[in-house]
Amino acid sequence: MASEQAPVEMPATFSKYTKRVMLKTILGRTDGGVGLVGQRVVIGGWVKSSREIRKQPVTPPPAAPAPPVVSPKDVTCSEVFQSRIPLFRSIMKVFGAGEYRIREKLDVVVQKAPQPSVSILQVSDGSCVASLQVLVDSALANPCQVMPTGTCVLIEGVLQQPSVQGKHYVELQAEKILHLGLVDESKYPLSKKRLPLESLRDCSHFRPRTTTVASVMRIHNSLTWATHAFFQDQGFLHVQVPIITSTDSEGFSEKFLVTTLLSKGIKDDQISPTEHAGVSVEAIRASMKEKTKKVEELSRTNSNKEALVAAQQDLKKTNELVSQLEARQKAKSGVTIETRKFDFSKDFFTRQTYLTVSGRLHLESQACALGNVYSFGPRFKAEKLESKKSLAETWMIDVEMAFSELEDAMDCANDFLKFVCKRILEGCMEDLQFVLKRIDKSVMERLQFTISSSFVRISYAEAIEILRQVAGKKFQSKIELGVSLTEEHESYLVDEIYKKTVIVYNHPKELKPFYVRLNDDGKTVATFDVILPKVGALIRGSQSEERFNVLSSRMKELGLQKQQYEWYLDLRRHGSAKTSGFSLMLEPLVLYATGLNDVKDVVPFARSFGRANN
């Protein structure tokens, strides 16, 4: 029987475009990099932590033996002369003057040479959880320059076995510093250790340098590629849908208006310079009261008509200035359509346009020509609420399939979730081990259970009835038909009752968008929500209404402007087909895979109500 061969380890190789070795090619090996000892490499990254070790001073050689005593008869003339030097100096001190006078002491300050040391750096380049230990001699670089957290280094050196036994299998002995990006420790936000995630949101441009956020970003990346891999393997086409649209995709969502008309309002040169000098509207209003009193007094006495006219003109100018400042403040804070009327025929697109809320409607037009399609891109909602599970700007996966019904979409959503969970378990083990240790000890078990378990499917009416029968539990929101299930209701279904993923389908038509298919009962629609433990409703899907008359009636019932949706109705007029699909926000999926609790911690730059820092 042939013995099983060990996997062949590849040597550390330069990244093609950066001429350096990625640390994961060293530290990600099964031997931890031991097989690369002796190789010369160039690595680049940022210092995570550091310490300094002083070198032991070199012991001076033993003193030479004392010279033999010289007899008087062997004393030379030079030796006699040197023995008389102190006498000569005393004589010269008495008779010397000016620049020739000899100083008693030399005013020379001799600086003590610093003790040699070695800086031991833990360097990370973001390619893996582990960091590489790098030894930099003080003769190569000043410790105060290379040791601060956040310092950027590009170093050439030789890999060697660790000088001190510990958690490292290999270390780098630096021989050349090719680049050094210094840090101002007093201002660098990551100089402090163990910063909470909440405080890192204010410095989102630096937080990927932390181990936690870096791991989350790599898992985020794996989920993105797993998404593309699943749909590409299933024969779907990836298509782009517009970010700017004239269509309200859901019919009732809060949207961001896109317009250039605000820039055509009050101009900077129409505002008094006093505004830029820091004069507030309140201060000017206070002065208006004084000026009004002055006008009233002059009017009563009627003694000085010229002063009255001047006071009236001054009051008029002050009123105009207040109006201008108030208008400027409104423009800065964001003017709504209700507070200011616009002629959108003069706008950039000659009509009202918005940032898209969902890509399902546009994607349906592609499905009715290309078959099964999906889109992956940013979506926007202007909801003024603070939530740990939603953002103003989110990345959404929209899916649409031609010639399919509700059951088909639920099956696709089921398979997709199992696929991406399996993919990150296979490809992100190091990062998941870190998450398991630092964030959520149940993350592995949760992902494995998602893969192996079957999803429960219940109707909305069944879910309401099951929750009503719960004894000894008082929910904050009332449970009744026709009302949306809250996060509390959904959490109780998946965490307490079924203890697994649940799909709730056939919701009341009042709770869902206008375009979903009306069921035969005339009260519910063909929709479904996939509810997961920890994150709640992750996927929302539906079968689209393919019947022209039913769709038109539904739009009329909701009071939607038919003109805005004529292009969508055309799909029913010309070659209509049954389609179904779903939408999934990526950020809650990352929460599910990492155990974090707030979506603002799993995106590079979070956009939420009241927050857009950079």
UniProtKB/TrEMBL annotation:
A GO cellular component entry from the record: mitochondrion
Family listed: Belongs to the class-II aminoacyl-tRNA synthetase family.
Spans through the membrane: none
UniProt keyword ATP-binding, yes or no: yes
Listed name of the protein: asparagine--tRNA ligase
GO molecular function: asparagine-tRNA ligase activity; ATP binding
Listed Pfam families: tRNA-synt_2
Root EC class: ligase
Top-level taxonomic group: Eukaryota
Record EC number: 6.1.1.22
Keywords: Aminoacyl-tRNA synthetase, ATP-binding, Coiled coil, Ligase, Nucleotide-binding, Protein biosynthesis
Residue span, Aminoacyl-tRNA synthetase class II (D/K/N) domain: 340-607
Record-level GO BP terms: asparaginyl-tRNA aminoacylation
UniProt xrefs under InterPro entries: Aa-tRNA-synt_II (IPR004364), aa-tRNA-synth_II/BPL/LPL (IPR045864), Asn-tRNA-ligase (IPR004522)
Gene3D superfamilies, per database record: Bira Bifunctional Protein, Domain 2
Keyword Ligase applies: yes
Coiled-coil boundaries: 281-328
